[in-house]
């Protein structure tokens, strides 16, 4: 889950898959042997969703937290309306 350790500005709250794709070139430089960056991004998002750390809202839109890139702090809580 190297993407989880990658510092992506603006993550937290609502974010879009398209925004993560904007970091594809930087990830490709960091992991030159990975020829499936976009597929790996989607895989990491699915794993984070399954762990309950983010929520998929549909059409490439997610909400939730992201672990601090250097271990500073916890996963941000998603904002949900009270029942």
Describe this structure in words.
By secondary structure, this protein is of the alpha+beta class. The protein has one domain: Arc Repressor Mutant, subunit A (Orthogonal Bundle). Helices cover 36% and strands 16% of the residues. The protein is built from four helices and three strands. Strands 1-3-2 form a three-stranded antiparallel β-sheet. Strand 2 and strand 3 form a beta hairpin. The longest helix has 14 residues. It is globular, with a radius of gyration of 13 Å. The C terminus is likely disordered.
Task: Write a brief caption for the model.
The chain has 83 residues and is α+β, with helices and mostly antiparallel strands.
Instruction: Look at the structure and give the mean pLDDT.
Output: 75
CATH fold name, please?
Arc Repressor Mutant, subunit A
- Neighbour order of strands in the largest sheet: 1-3-2
For the biggest sheet, the summary is: 3 strands, antiparallel
- Give the SSE string: HEHHHEE
Per the principal axes of the C-alpha atoms, what is the gross shape?
globular
Assign the CATH superfamily: Winged helix-like DNA-binding domain superfamily/Winged helix DNA-binding domain
* Separate helix tally: 4
Radius of gyration: 13 Å
Helix content: 25-40%
């Amino acid at each position: 889950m190297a993407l989880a350790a990658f510092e992506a500005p603006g993550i937290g709250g609502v974010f879009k898959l398209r925004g993560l794709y904007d970091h594809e070139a930087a990830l490709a430089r960091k992991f030159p042997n990975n020829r499936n960056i976009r597929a790996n991004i989607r895989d990491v998002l699915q794993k984070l969703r399954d762990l309950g750390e983010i929520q998929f809202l549909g059409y490439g839109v997610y909400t939730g937290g992201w672990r601090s890139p250097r271990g500073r702090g916890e996963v941000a809580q998603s904002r949900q309306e009270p029942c």
